[in-house]
Structures are given as C-alpha cells and as structure tokens.
Amino acid sequence: KAGVTQTPRYLIKTRGQQVTLSCSPISGHRSVSWYQQTPGQGLQFLFEYFSETQRNKGNFPGRFSGRQFSNSRSEMNVSTLELGDSALYLCASSLYRGDRNEQFFGPGTRLTVL
Amino acid sequence: GDSVTQMEGPVTLSEEAFLTINCTYTATGYPSLFWYVQYPGEGLQLLLKATKADDKGSNKGFEATYRKETTSFHLEKGSVQVSDSAVYFCALTEIKAAGNKLTFGGGTRVLVKP
After folding, report:
1. Based on the number of CB atoms within 10 Å of its own CB, is A99 exposed (0-12), middle (13-18) or buried (19 or more)?
2. Chain A contact for B1, CB < 8 A?
3. Torsions phi, psi of A8, nearest 5?
4. How many CB atoms lie within 10 A of CB A114?
5. How far is A26 from chain B, CA to nearest CA, in Å?
6. Is the pLDDT of residue A109 over 60?
7. For residue range B28-57, what is the model confidence (pLDDT) as tens digits?
8. Cβ-Cβ contacts under 8 Å, B98 against chain A
C-alpha cells in the first residue's frame, strides 16, 4: 500500500507570493491533517480535514487555508508569504477521526521563503 | 491548553547503551500518548502508543508506559544501535479535541556513536 505522498518536496518562493502544497493520503484514509515544523516553534497543528470539511484548526493566521477533495486528497495554501513561513510542512492521514487513531505522515514539503 | 514537555537534546550515546527520554504532559482530559521518530530528511513515523493508564507501548525494542499518576510517558531502549540515531517526539491527542490533533513535545535528538 502506498504511503502518504506530498508534492512538491521542495519549494522556493519570495515574500508576498502564495503557494499551494498537495497531500495524497493512503488509499481509504478519509482524514488529513497538516502540521508546520520549524526549528523555533517545533511541530504545530495547522488544520484537519475529514470528508471534505475542516474539523479542527490550529492557531495560525487566515493566510493559511486548506481544502479537501472528494477523493480525500488535500491542499493547503499560504498567501502573502512571509520569511517566517519557511518550514517543513507535514501532512498526516488516518482512517478515522479520534484520539486513538494512528496517523501516518508523509515526507513533507520544505518551503523556503526568500 | 494541552502541552508536552520532553528532555532537550542532543543525547549522545555509545552503541549498546541504555536510552531514556523523559516525557511529561499536561492535559485536561484523558489523552492517548504517542512516540514518533523522525529520521533525517523524512517525515514522522509512529514508534509506539498507549491509550490508557498503565498501558505499555512497545516496538523495535523501545518501550514506554503510560503513567497517569505522574503524567509521564518516558521512552526507553535497553541497547541502542547506530541506526536509532534520529529525533524522537512525544505527543498526545485528547478526546475532547474530537479529532486527530496531535500536540507534540519539542523533540529530542539522539546520536548513537559506534
């Protein structure tokens, strides 16, 4: 079974631009969550999607948004990029929602903002 | 809010040494607890989990016991190998979050020398 895939793996943008990252979950998984990983702030929850609906959102500005499609693939978008948005963005998928549910992570997209 | 505190690294060990990484948590509910591992250039992999008090999670020689009385979930391995060099993250999810939101500790880098 293929794992979680994220595209692109690396991205370089300049301040003020916008970016879209993509995540394809494991086949059959309906929940997709996004996390931002930085050396200073560590791993922080961005949002979770389940059945095309955002179910949970972390403490990030409105410049960060996402969506989920009917095939469970998800995209996240960051508008008006800032230098501080440089990070590894990780996507995780799981079968269900719930605290005991195992989440499977993708390799991440490394975003560099210049 | 919920939080996870783990010992700062780096932790440097010789092969076959005993490894302990301390993890304590704060949560208003009754969380499930996880240890994830991140190898260089990769996403996170679930190492083990425990969903109720006194549960012991184990995998690949690693163990951790859910201690509700001390709100701890310390990771141990009796004999480490060079291949165990990685960053280890303690994490929790809570029922009241009604979803898959993981709250992570800051990570502990482990370096095992031959």
Report:
1. buried
2. no
3. -75, 170
4. 10
5. 14
6. yes
7. 878 899 999 999 888 899 999 998 899 999
8. 55-56, 97
Are residues B101 and A102, on separate chains, in Cβ contact within 8 Å? Answer: no
Residue of A nearest to B91 (CA): A43
Predicted local confidence at residue B28, as pLDDT: 81
pLDDT tens string A70-93 = 999 999 999 999 999 999 999 999
CA atoms within 13 A on the CB side of A12: 1
Q: Is A101 within 8 Å of B42 when comparing Cβ atoms?
A: no
In whole angstroms, what is the distance from residue B25 CA to residue A17 CA? 38
Could you give the CA distance from residue A62 to residue A18 in angstroms, rounded to a whole number?
A: 13
- A5-34 burial string, b = 16+ CB within 10 Å, else e? bbeeeeeebeeeeebebebbbbeebbbbbb
- Count CA atoms within 13 Å of residue B62 on its CB side: 22
Q: Say which of A42, A99, A105 has its CB closest to residue B94.
A: A99
- CA dist A60 and A49 (Å) reads 16
Distance, in angstroms, between B61 CA and closest chain A CA? 20
